[in-house]
Amino acid sequence: MNQFDRCRISARAATAVRGEPRHIFPLRHGGMAGAKVRYELVGPAGAPLLLVAGGISAGRHVLASDQFPEAGWWQAQADTLNRYRILAFDWIGADGAIDLPIDPSDQADAIAWLLDELGEPLTAAFIGASYGAMVGMHLAARHPDRLGALLAISASGSAHPFASACRALQRQAITLGERQGNPKAGVALARAMAILTYRTPQEFADRFAAVPSVERGRVRAAAEDYLDYQGMRHCTRMSATAYRRLSESIDLHRIDPGDINVPLTLAAVDQDALVPAHDIEALARAIPGAGFHLIRSRFGHDAFLKEEGQVTAIITSFLESLEISQ
User: Fold this and answer.
1) Gap between the Cα atoms of 171 and 175, Å rounded
2) Is residue 131 a contact partner of residue 304, using CB atoms and an 8 Å limit?
3) Predicted TM-score (pTM) above 0.85
4) Distance of alpha carbon 179 from alpha carbon 176, whole angstroms
5) Distance between CA atoms of 292 and 283, rounded to whole angstroms?
6) Cα separation of 55 and 128, whole Å?
7) Pairwise CA distance, residues 123 & 263, whole Å
8) Considering only CA atoms, which of 191, 190, 230 is closest in space to residue 208?
9) How far apart are CA 197 and CA 236, in angstroms?
10) To bridge 143 with a disulfide, which of 112, 187, 270, 319 should be the other Cys (CB 3.0-4.6 Å)?
């Protein structure tokens, strides 16, 4: 009986634990840095272990549990993932404690260290979306013995120049806020700018079709309230330092297709402005045996959070392939 069969017949309720061990990591571009690796482990005891990671604003709380009942950032995939033990983590630097360049490979090394710390020599797979998918590629390249397979959603082999230009302007907004003595305002503006790249013109045309209005002597676009809300919400959760360093980390992402030596499945979104689908498809063609899925969505880069049905189908197919290989 393999581990997947044991998980199916297990009647144990899922439990969750958290921890934050500290370690000093050698950063690829910035020397040594001490960091806490904040993690959450949730799921049935004895079930196969999955690493799950999302974008730079996603953290360790993926799914709700009795111990931590608030909805997780990927709660929509609970029914798909709840037969597994899920290990997720806050990115190093997400707490603003590291004001140095952080490479995605640094994150991969931190994950490998955490697996050692937890006594987990091997994970069944890594499921990553956006920045999480980039880090998953580096983990597969640097520590291929630690994961059985990788599902990477909305990430290609390197940052697209258009996306890097957009993030550079966001970081300038953060710097402007700091110079004015209001770093939160800088983060809020940067996040509002980012939202435009996460979504699509089609969605904005559908949601914010009202004609711009004149209010207190200035013209206000229909989408401004929404963008302001997103910005203000984010500036209460992420510091200027964390936003800048994790944004930079996305731009540092570079992977040689020949370095990925685990079974790989890639998924792209047809209207993703940040990571064009053809770049992801090209990466799939460059890696023998890699699978490729195309998600069709007006939600662009955020489709992994919004297109529950299509994403569920991809994850389910990926997990079934793991079970067949056992």
Assistant:
1) 6
2) no
3) yes
4) 5
5) 9
6) 8
7) 13
8) 230
9) 21
10) 112
Per-residue pLDDT of the chain (326 residues; tens, 9 = 90+): 344 443 333 333 468 999 999 999 999 998 999 999 999 999 998 899 999 999 999 999 999 999 999 999 999 999 999 999 999 999 999 999 999 999 999 999 999 999 999 999 889 999 999 999 999 999 999 999 999 999 999 999 999 999 999 999 999 999 999 999 999 999 999 999 999 999 999 999 999 999 999 999 999 999 999 999 999 999 999 999 999 999 999 999 999 999 999 999 999 999 999 999 999 999 999 999 999 999 999 999 999 999 999 999 999 999 999 876 55
Token pair for 176: 């402007």
> Which residues lie closer than 8 Å to 268 by C-beta, 6 or more apart?
154, 275, 276, 277, 279, 280, 281, 292, 293, 294, 295
Give the position of tokens 């110079």. Answer: 179
